[in-house]
Amino acid sequence: MADLVIVESPAKARTIEKYLGRGYKVEASMGHLRDLPKSKLGVDIEAGFEPQYIPIKGKEERIRQLKQAVRESEKVYLATDPDREGEAISWHLKELLEIPDEKAYRVTFHEITKNVVVESLKNPRPIDTNLVDAQQARRILDRIVGYKISPLLWRKIRRGLSAGRVQSVATRIVVDRENEIRSFVPKEYWTLEAELSFDKAHNFTAKFVGDRNGKIELENEEQTRKIMDSVSGSEFTVNSVKNGQKKRQPAPPFITSTLQQEAFRKFNMQSRRTMAVAQQLYEGVDLKEHGTVGLITYMRTDSLRLSEEAVAAARELIAGRYGKEYLPKTARKYKGRDNSQDAHEAIRPADVTIIPEDIKKDLTPDQYKLYKLIWSRFIACQMENAVFDTQTVDIESAGYIFRANSQRMRFAGFISVYEEGKDDPEEEKVAILPALSVGDKLDLLELKPEQHFTQPPPRYTEATLIKALEEYGIGRPSTYAPILSTIQEREYVRKENKSLVPTPLGEVVTELMKSNFSDIVDVDFTAKMEESLDRVGMGQEAWRDLLYRFYKPFSEDLDRAEQNLERIKVPDEETDVICENCGSKMVIKSGRFGRFLACPNYPDCKNTKPITEPTPGMCPKCGSTILKRKSKKNFTYYGCERNPACDFMTWDVPVADICPECGKTMFKKSGRGMRKPFCANPECPNFLPEDQRGYKKKSPEGEEKDGGK
User: Fold this and answer.
1) 366 shares its domain with 261
2) Is residue 343 one of the residues assigned to a domain?
């Protein structure tokens, strides 16, 4: 009788089954199999917050198959993900599949490699009920907030709205930043640079910093002109030359939040996409020379800890591949935040000897980019510092000081492998200075005054919002991506270029929450709730006590809001699109099928139109602009702006390239990653038939069909 191993995904099941071979059967639960009901609260508050779990609709056949597999097995290894949610899924499986205690074993895989999988099965443990209770408490908290506040939003704002405990705080952070930007009052300041020459051969720039008594801020043009008048007729003399050395340390290995931030900075990869690709790398990828391999360790972690074996392997690779001068005398160790759970290692390659470039052909473009990022960061974190020679030269004129800085790399160190991205890529340019000595005389070529105004704080991007959530202690590694997705899907926040901007709806809902449920959207309160959930997970607090403490003041706030709140109108979001019927600026509305443009003068003017976006290239039928559109079922397609006069439409993406044979716009297959452009003109020798483009077509109404145009 074979032993049964239950994991969450088919990909992980396939990888592990290849490692274990005979004697084991590996099945996938396909995620959660039971949950609270969708149609009602599903929590009996009077009975001590007793949850009412039911099988998830549509999973009946999978449950039946797993029950049969359990009956046919001697042992059942519950091998769901090694985090709080994974622990809860294992507990739900045990309860739902009616697995006896003596038959159930909990195992976790920090990395899916053969040695780790085999060793983990030799060392099973019971299900950690403390972690299960912490996850139950989180689920019930979120359910109570969502199912109690959402009906209030329906009645007071509009139907279809929903509230979330952590998502509401994230939305508030974005709204508060927008309010900061609106209330910001710019302040004038000036800079002054001197273009100088040494021996009429070497020109460089020095910045005004102050006088002999210290730093001076230039606040206006009058102050700046006064200094310019003083130095214009005076000598510029080198006052001091300071040579030094600066060392830069490598960034620590990735944790969940920093991986999402860096993937966004370097590849503009959304957090949800980053985690999906990381999951693929963790669960296993088929490599021609290695077989099925889990390429990285578990990707939901807030720990910077690294195993001694992994560090030793990295140091060996560094010495052999880059040279011993790139290897520190002792291995680097990194300390995480005080509130980190430290349940797993940092994110790293499972096997550092699998070089990204060697397996590039076996990976998708996104898999390769992310694996190379993780591999490079891990190797760099164990390398020597980068070393720079620095020089600071102070130059005096009429008692005022101008300063020039120079920096030159002496030793690349970790930079030869990896350099961390920045949220604000603009940095001060560092000049190469001539060989100067104290007392050297310099010629003034030009004075460059420039007026500036202080800038408001920048809007959040996905990367900086994740960073803020982590710093505030809101959410945990597994929640960052869902938080960002949810606030955008609910149309509380929209993306403008790369920035996150609150919608009028998001601002109205946030103001309602601040006025009536101040704790729910309070950053400190939410962070303390996360700490309480952590205490439950460590067995230091009872989960029902946490819920009782939360619910009493929450229910009082809810009663007050029901009695006092009047109906609130959401301001329309005005656009620059002019209504062709009445000349008004059209506004954005939301309906069953998403956002659309509508005339603000309804019902006198009932004009509406879809929100469209111009794309590269021209319509192959009539030469007009091609617009990106959404179907009623929210599928993206591309059509001529002259529709219905011109009936051109396609699911393929127009590109800027022109076919060299016929001169028509070329297209590429939709989806992620690099796609080779093709010609869609049936009369062209380069024409690529639709059945060779790699996927079935759908009409705008969502029905499959053979043609795409």
Assistant:
1) yes
2) yes
Residue 612 confidence (pLDDT): 72
Q: What is the pLDDT of residue 703?
A: 42
Q: Report the distance separating Cα 377 and Cα 544, nearest Å.
A: 42
The amino acid sitting at 479 is T
Q: pTM for this one?
A: 0.81
Residue 509: inside a domain, yes or no?
yes
Relative to beta strand 386-397, strand 188-198 is unpaired
The pLDDT, as a whole number, for residue 550 is 96
Q: What is the DSSP-derived secondary structure letter of residue 459?
A: P
pLDDT at position 658 is 82
245 and 261 housed in the same domain: no
Largest CA distance in the chain: 97
* Confidence at residue 581, expressed as pLDDT on a 0 to 100 scale: 87
Please name the residue that has the structure tokens 């929640």.
479
We report the CATH number of the domain holding residue 323 as 1.10.290.10
Is the same domain home to 449 and 595? Answer: no
CA–CA separation, 469 and 523 (whole Å)? 9
Q: Say which residue the tokens 């790398």 belong to.
A: 281
Q: Is the domain of 10 the same as that of 117?
A: yes
Q: Are 621 and 664 in contact (CB under 8 A)?
A: no
With a CB cutoff of 8 Å and minimum separation 6, the contacts of 193 are 205, 206, 207, 208, 447, 448, 450
Residue that terminates a domain, selected from 428, 453, 478: 453
Same structural domain, 266 and 341? yes
Q: What are the average pLDDT values for consecutive 10-residue runs of the chain, which has 709 residues?
A: 91 91 92 93 96 95 96 95 92 96 95 93 96 96 95 90 92 97 97 93 93 95 97 95 96 96 92 93 92 93 93 97 96 79 82 96 94 98 97 96 95 94 63 90 96 96 94 89 91 89 94 94 94 94 96 95 89 83 85 77 86 78 82 78 85 84 83 72 83 59 39
CATH number at residue 222: 2.70.20.10
d(Cα 298, Cα 523) in Å, to the nearest integer? 28
Is 513 buried (19+), middle (13-18) or exposed (0-12) by CB count in 10 A?
A: buried
Domain, as residue range, for 658 = 613-709
Q: Which residues contact 138 (CB under 8 A, 6 or more apart)?
A: 84, 533
* Catalytic entry in 77, 298, 418, 460: 298
pLDDT of residue 636: 81
Q: Please tell me the predicted confidence (pLDDT) of residue 669.
A: 83
Cβ distance 8 to 14 under 8 Å? no
Last residue of a domain, one of 453, 470, 496: 453
Task: Give 225's Cβ-side CA count (13 Å radius).
Answer: 3
Name the H helices within 33-100: 60-71, 84-96
**Which letter does DSSP use for residue 120 in this model?**
H
Q: Is residue 132 part of a domain?
A: no
DSSP state of 385: P
CA–CA separation, 216 vs 403, rounded Å?
13
Q: In what order do the strands lie in the sheet with 104-106?
A: 24-28, 3-7, 76-78, 104-106
Segment holding 139, helix H or strand E? helix 129-156
Helices assigned H by DSSP within 233-299: 256-267, 271-283
CA distances for 517 relative to 145, 152, 525, angstroms: 10, 12, 11
Active site residue 77: no
| pLDDT attached to residue 47 | 95
Backbone angles phi, psi at 659, to 5 degrees: -65, 125
